[in-house]
Design brief:
Length: about 160
């Protein structure tokens, strides 16, 4: 859980807007600015490229984390089905002790392993959801309002139909 939190903070920290104080144009005592226009343009181009390609990186992360979660879930399902096979083999095969544990050690071991794999799958899925949230934010940040795609040569047509009664 801690690892996924750190990853989320690092991802969101890279795309978070700058503080308002960083927008101030600090001037030297002679009236010149610290940052020239060329470096500002380079910084903006870098920020745009980071957001543009970062959204695809996080989208790939969503897919990868989901695949990892599926793998852990299949391990959990395999152990759970083995536990069910033990329970179906005899009437008292899955008897519970006073502490709530299975009396058979192999049944208890399968149950505990199934739970471990389930927890791992849940963590991978939480990471995938956090990555999906970051991907969504990056796609929204990368929108260019008022600009259409480059591959559409004509303005959109409005088509309608009137039906007289």
């Amino acid at each position: 859980m801690m690892r996924s939190t750190i990853v989320c903070v690092l991802l969101l920290g890279g795309v978070a807007p700058r503080l308002a104080a960083q927008y101030l144009d600090a001037r030297r005592h002679d009236g010149t600015t610290h940052v020239n226009a060329q470096s500002s343009g380079q910084r903006e181009a870098f920020r745009h490229a980071t957001v543009h390609y970062g959204k695809w990186f996080t989208a790939a992360g969503v897919a990868a984390l989901t695949i990892f979660a599926e793998r852990e879930h299949s391990h959990s399902r395999r152990d759970w089905n083995a536990l069910l096979d033990i329970c179906r083999s005899a009437q008292d095969a899955c008897a519970l002790g006073p502490d709530g544990r299975y009396l058979r050690s192999d049944a208890e071991q399968l149950y505990q392993r199934s739970r471990v794999y389930d927890r791992r799958a849940n963590r991978w899925l939480l990471g995938a959801q956090a990555s999906l949230l970051a991907t969504t934010a990056l796609f929204i940040i990368d929108l260019h309002p008022g600009e259409g795609p480059d591959n559409i040569p004509f303005a959109p047509l409005q088509v309608g139909m009137r039906i007289a009664f």
